[in-house]
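Deviations from the work plan: none for this task. Representative record:
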Amino acid sequence: MIKQELIFRDYLRAKGLKFTPERRMVLEEIFSFSGHFDVEALYDKLRHRVGGLSLATIYRTMPLLIKAGLIKEVMRCQNRPQYERCFGSPHHDHLICIKCGRVFEFREEEIERLQDKVCQRFGFRPIEHRLGIKGYCKNCQIKERNSRNV
Amino acid sequence: MIKQELIFRDYLRAKGLKFTPERRMVLEEIFSFSGHFDVEALYDKLRHRVGGLSLATIYRTMPLLIKAGLIKEVMRCQNRPQYERCFGSPHHDHLICIKCGRVFEFREEEIERLQDKVCQRFGFRPIEHRLGIKGYCKNCQIKERNSRNV
DNA sequence: TTGTAACTGAGAATCAATTGCAAATAGTCA
DNA sequence: TGACTATTTGCAATTGATTCTCAGTTACAA
Ligand SMILES: [Zn+2]
Ligand SMILES: [Zn+2]
Ligand SMILES: [Zn+2]
Ligand SMILES: [Zn+2]
């Protein structure tokens, strides 16, 4: 069995919950690609499948996947939370282009390390963190520069 | 005149907008204390004043204050955006306790510097960033430890 | 002072997200 | 295998935050 499915089943069993076809569909869809997504996008992809499922079910499945450690909320665009799978993909942070919406991922060891140092200073036990840098991507800067020259 | 008021007036004038008593009340309230706040809290404080003002007006004023560079959204708690003034207070990031909700502010120069380095690597022009670390504060860790011993 | 575009409060509308309910069903235990 | 039951589902109604509409008010430039 696929590993994420095993994890999900184990999580559900441990909580006395059921592994339903609907929950499997959501899980499969999420792990069929890598990248960011939101509830709306998930619904669009799943509603038209044979025996498509309801929006409410997706909303009810998200927290389960999060608690199972399979996905996490990583940012918020247009006032909607964006998720990504975290099982099998290493932690990273994000650059978000204000103009075109593109998202770039990075991981800077030193930043990670320094955060721990800060936490120690406060006696704070960190569970998770989120670093998002908003600005203009390379492309959008070039476009802007060109349009100025016109 | 108080400096933030001057800035706000200048911003409004430049955009052909008006400096009204309502907008002044919101501005005054925000600058009467330092710390984080949300729309709800602001409304609670302002509604009962003589000539209290409406929630809609507060909602309409927030983006103006943001664009004027006087406040900014810093995080989101219970699905509500939290703001803080940014005029006259230096940039910082946040530690947020998952249990008691307390928020601690820190500034780590080296993290700031490294972010610029990352941006350079991507040819990305940063405008703003947000770093939030969630976990358990010193107090809540102690409480938990004690309750375990019972 | 006057004219007018911007502003206000109140309530309606919107949007994402949650919830109540009755019918369906996964998973357990004979 | 078959019955049992707590969980889940879809649907529609609801919530809660935010935005919009509109008619009356007002700041402020000329
Ligand atoms: Zn871009
Ligand atoms: Zn990512
Ligand atoms: Zn705490
Ligand atoms: Zn702060």
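The mean pLDDT of chain B is 93.
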